[in-house]
Amino acid sequence: MSFRKEPPFTHGTPARNAVVLVNLGTPDAPTTPAVRRYLKEFLSDPRVVEIPRALWWMILHLIILPFRSSQSAAKYASIWTKEGSPLKVHTQKQALLLRGLLGERGHDAVKVVMAMRYGSPSLPEVLDQLKAENCERIAILPAYPQYSGTTTGSISDAVFAHYAGVRNVPELRMIKHYHDQDGYIDALRDSVLAHWKVNGRGDKLVMSFHGVPKRTLMLGDPYHCECHKTARLLATALGLSSEQYLVTFQSRFGKAEWLQPYTAPTLVQMAKDGLKRVDLICPGFTSDCLETLEEIAMEAKHDFEAAGGREFHYIPCLNESPAWIAGLADITEQHLLGWNTRATPAQREAEKQDLEAGRRNAQQLGAS
């Protein structure tokens, strides 16, 4: 076995700490070729699709990629912004704001960057850059509050696969989940209350989580249970009874049974049963993306109204809300315990320059 070449190192250089905020990923552009590349990487992950590889290769390359890429590209185009992919833009801003808040709390020797599990910037690319910057302690922070082998488990696979080819492996901390953390639940509560204050309150609050095949639950994946615990804690924080909210699962793919009830058919049935207004939040997504902006705010809204519903209110993801950035900082601080997170004067100056560069990049994104 050969290992990748280690970057140049000067003895006496202080080691740095880093937090990597990892989200799922996004195509580089809302075009068929870009979406095809993204889907190929995403759907080739055995964590995502647990079908025998030879059979899945034929399905993916002969059916899904040729036909679904253009359809998905059109959907991405409907939510793309001047800044780019909403998911990527929100994750970049979250990382920048988290870094700033950690600095204000005294953790000025902590670098915060974002990476994507699929697409760019790729997780291996970001980890290589951190190594070149002498980051000896790295905390991996998934953007997924609820653990699933299909998401957080896949991030762990990618991290350990990357370091299997590295001679000098840094100290690693893998943050598994935070589905029941106070800061996360409080941020969700504040988001719902803020929406209700402006728009009034609907007849029922639907909490829609991304779906996974039912067999993963039967095989021991804790995702289903963690989604329901998040929902229960949020409902309690909002003072809702069990009749005033409902948990559903969206984004079903293929013919196999997934976690139920399914979001879209449930909304249609609600409208047919006479429900006039529904409020919907997607607690499992911390950044707005295709699954929230197109699948829910556009498609689900249309389905509900076409079935007789009068008002459909989508409550945006946490994105860059101050309560969520504070919650992220709380979660991160718990996993930084025992690390020296205070900078030397030289480190402080370097971190200041890096942060200023990040702010300039964010401003350029906003102006583009």
TrEMBL record:
Catalysed reactions listed for this entry: Fe-coproporphyrin III + 2 H(+) = coproporphyrin III + Fe(2+); heme b + 2 H(+) = protoporphyrin IX + Fe(2+)
| GO cellular component entries | cytoplasm
Could you say which residues bind Fe(2+) here?
210, 291
Cited PANTHER family: FERROCHELATASE, FERROCHELATASE, MITOCHONDRIAL
Q: What does this protein do?
A: Catalyzes the ferrous insertion into protoporphyrin IX.
Identify the EC number(s).
4.98.1.1
Descriptive protein name:
Ferrochelatase
Origin species: Massilia atriviolacea
- Indicate where this protein is primarily found: cytoplasm
GO biological processes? heme biosynthetic process
Gene Ontology MF terms in the entry: ferrochelatase activity; metal ion binding
Q: Does the keyword Acyltransferase apply?
A: no
Annotated pathway: Porphyrin-containing compound metabolism; protoheme biosynthesis; protoheme from protoporphyrin-IX: step 1/1
Q: Which UniProt keywords apply?
A: Cytoplasm, Heme biosynthesis, Iron, Lyase, Metal-binding, Porphyrin biosynthesis
